[in-house]
Amino acid sequence: LDLALKIADRIIVPLQPSPFDLAATHAFLQVLAGHKRGGKLAVALVAMRVKEHTHATQPPHEFLEAVAPPPLHIPVTHLRDTQNYVHLAAHGLTLFDVPPSARFEKDLEQWQPICHWLDN
């Protein structure tokens, strides 16, 4: 971790919608905050495999609001639970390796906040 933090200026922290992952992410964010470079690192949280419009999305969002209240403003986004990633990975591909199509439109749209955050 120390080597990565020496060269990184941005960190994306993946977050699964489970109580175990929420606890582990909270502990990891505390480690980052306590690191000597902690105040110099930009951190973003990405909730992964989120089933939209279900009760399962509530705990991660409540957690993220508790961990990143204003003025901290840790950027947060989510990626839906879809088999598109599985099918592409089976062929050694990502969403960014295939031509845009209706099949991947929603997934590419969800990546825009992450890409924008990385570019700025």
Please summarize what this structure is.
The chain is an alpha/beta fold and 120 residues long. The protein contains 5 helices and 3 strands, in the order αβαβαβαα.
Question: What can you tell me about this protein's structure?
Answer:
- It is a single chain.
- The chain is α/β, with parallel strands linked by helices.
- Helices cover 45% and strands 17% of the residues.
- The protein is built from five helices and three strands; from the N terminus they run αβαβαβαα.
- The protein has helices at residues 2-7, 19-34, 58-67, 84-90, 105-119; strands at 10-15, 42-50, 76-80.
- The protein has a three-stranded parallel sheet.
- Strand 2 (42-50), helix 3 and strand 3 form a beta-alpha-beta unit.
- The longest helix is centred in the N-terminal third of the chain and has 16 residues, at 19-34.
- It starts with a helix and ends with a helix.
